[in-house]
Amino acid sequence: MPQIVVENLAKTFHVAERSAGLWGAVRGLAHRRYREVRALDGVSFTIEPGELVGYIGPNGAGKSTTVKALAGILVPDGGRCEVRGRVPWKDRITHVGEIGVVFGQRTQLWWDLPVVESFELLRDIYRVSTSEYESARDELIDLLDLKMLLDVPVRQLSLGQRMRCDLAAALLHRPPILFLDEPTIGLDAVSKLAVRDFIRRLNRERGVTVILTTHDMDDIEALCTRVIVIGSGKILSDGTLAELRARVTRERWLTIDLADGESDGAIDDPDVTVIRREGQRVCLAFDPQRVAPAELIRRVTSRHAIHDLFVENPPIEAIVARLYSDAPR
Amino acid sequence: MDGFTSTILPYRAILSARFRMLLQYRAAAVAGLWTQIFFGLVLIMVYEAFYRSGDAPKPMALAQVVSYVWLGQALFAMLPWNVDGEVAGMIRTGAVAYELCRPVDLYWLWYARAVAQRVAPTILRAVPMTVLAMLLLPRIGLGEWRLVPPPTLASGVAFGGALLCALLLGCAITVLLNVSLFWTIAGEGIVVMGAAAVSFLSGMIVPLPLLPDWSQLVLRWLPFAGLVDLPFRVYTGHIAPADVSGVLLRQVMWTLVLIGIGRWLLARGMRRVVIQGG
């Protein structure tokens, strides 16, 4: 039975608009114009227990709105939404006791308190017994390497340290479902890897269902078995990474490093398009069903002196960018 | 954990955390103390001049007015005149989303915050202020301007009850001010107007019995007299201990009404809140 059911979810925001300048501000006092923004426009999906789902889309696509509806913070205008058989915003208090939430751009820790005091406050707010709290805390300290951070006031933490503490804070009550809204935003490479590693272990070893929104396609490739793409409030694609690729494009990329002296040699093969060219390096796109990779390589190498070459799938960024640009506005 | 302990645990935790945090602002309290003594003395001089200048019967004795003024300076921080900076920050940055993710009743969570917000600075100010106004002034020859103890033990006990109810009422109003931030993000407008109205209508600026007769009926039916005027008059004996039940009843009724309004507004605010920043 699915753990999360979302059916035809809709939410429209009315955003007050104001013309620019002083006159616009004055006019805004008397008469407000509102623009309708359809943040969610019939969103449907189901999620089984233990899934690790990436939820991606351009800015303003409705990612956060969906997460907020699932977390019970936001009441949608229409549609159905159930998490573990409960409607989040109707049964808010019971519901939020069974989920963990991290909004990457904000912290739930108390700014002036040492980390461990925030944890103790959350223990009391979630009514976790002392023994359960201690075992959860020690486990999280271990997994996230927090030992050195516990007595540091939150305002003195680096962003990466803070994010690790925020993840721990969201899991002290051992929720079976975790919502992560851009958990790697602004982190350096090492912190990103640590956060990803933790999310993966949490999902694989503890079976925690994770819904992750992100703009970082490396997060998706490293973590997610399933990707839901949303654009302008509508679901554009839902499936595995391979399915997403197959749906959007069959295209494969051939990158070649031309030998010296070949730098202005034009590559004019009817079956390829040149995507970019940087010095000696040329990147070509081709359709493997029109021309077999081996045949294409033979053709190119027979015409040009080549230093090195490799074939790859287009990066997920390129796939997603194409999906976004094809989406109806 | 038994049921009751478990139920109040989150609220108690946030109250004590906020309380400890607010007790750190000792320097502000000490700095405020001198301002308030100065202000109190100026007010008393004005009232003394006013009482000496006319022969018409006065609605309160001068000594009662003097005590009223000092109580006002001592308990000034209990008046619901400002919003919780932490709540304002959360609403501005959108971190209030986390507050909505807690498995607790948000109204009582914010009420617990309000209790800390009203009690902590009051303790920091009330104790030194009372000592100064009651014990120091007579020693420097200003005995006539000192804070005198309640006339009877009964008045003192009745004052304790009325003060507690004033606190509960003030917290309900504080939550209302905090909830108003859902509608006005900057928060300045409503809060500044609210603070001015609360200060004047509660009697913090002028003891309410000294205001014109025509205003008395209105003032009596508004909730604000319960914050300052009624408990202070119980202290000075202007309201007899035998009449205190009526005072408490008015305070409790208003507290319940304002809690009801606060809960309703908070539920609406939560439905309507567009959490800042996407």
Main features:
heterodimer, A: 329 residues, alpha/beta, Rossmann fold, Alpha-Beta Plaits, 2 domains, four-stranded antiparallel β-sheet, 11 helices, 36% helix, globular, B: 278 residues, mainly alpha
What would your notes on this structure say?
The complex is a heterodimer of chains A (about 325) and B (about 280). With about 325 residues, chain A is α/β, with parallel strands linked by helices. Chain A folds into 2 domains: about 5-10 and about 40-245, P-loop containing nucleotide triphosphate hydrolases (Rossmann fold, 3-Layer(aba) Sandwich); about 250-315, Alpha-Beta Plaits (2-Layer Sandwich). Helix content of chain A is about 35%, strand content about 30%. Chain A contains 11 helices and 13 strands. Chain A has helices spanning about 20-30, 65-70, 90-95, 115-125, 130-145, 160-170, 190-205, 215-225, 240-250, 295-305, 315-325; strands at about 5-15, 35-45, 50-55, 80-85, 100-105, 175-180, 210-215, 225-230, 235-240, 250-260, 270-280, 280-285, 305-310. In chain A, strands 5-6-7-3-8-9 form a 6-stranded mixed sheet, sandwiched between helices. By secondary structure, chain B is mainly α. Chain B has one domain (about 5-270). Helix content of chain B is about 70%, strand content about 0%. Chain B is globular. Chain B starts with a helix and ends in a 6-residue tail after the last helix. The chains are: A alpha/beta (about 325), B mainly alpha (about 280). The interface of A and B includes residues 112, 120, 121, 124 and 129 of A.
